[in-house]
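Fig. S4 source data, part A: sequence.
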Amino acid sequence: MSNMESKVALITGANRGIGFETAKELGEQGIQVILAVRDPAGGEAAAEKLQALGIKAVVVPYEAGKPGAAAQVAAFVDQHFGKLDILVNNAGILKENLVGGNNSSQVEGKVLRDTFEVNFFAVIELTQALLPLIKRSKAGRIVNLSSILASLSLHSMPDSPIEQAKSVAYNTSKTALNAYTVHLAHELKHTAIKVNAAHPGWVKTALGGANAPMEVDGSGKTSAQLATLGAEGPSGGFFHQGEALPW
């Protein structure tokens, strides 16, 4: 089977955590995975783990927000594969405490700008750079890693289940990402490309912390589901393990 016939997926931040689990789930379905990572050495180690499982995995350097990074990734994919079937925008940062306080009146401008640079602006830049390659796919899929903490509906409930999680820079960057997901899905609604936002769950990762209730194993389930939706699947939605979440 040639590269143009087999599916190709690119996952950012895929050397560990949810990104690695997503690459593993997709790779186990016979999909060629590209690990787009800030740390090439860590990426190669992750690729070797996947290859040991019989998964086709390669690494491309990618640092979100670095000038020229998105274009370099697009050039790599074009040169080696000629198209892209799946883009999972998984890379993200958190520069605040995830739970335990509300810093809205005190959040530093640099924290806001740095968070939005990686979690929002860089996602748009990379997606735009790769979209011409995704349009070459018979059924392109774009998955944006969001969070339940992006939900304005849940935050504003009188008895909100996420009341204690008011990290304003992180949360609003993901709310903005949800908005971009809706807008891009609308633009592409007459194509075969589907665009959705995923809440992976609160997972024991470097970002989620040791107190998170979900283990890393299997944490790529939601992303993998949305990345492999059939033709009748949804677009422009926000999901966790097949269930729609409120905006």
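Fig. S4 source data, part B ends here. The mean pLDDT is 91.
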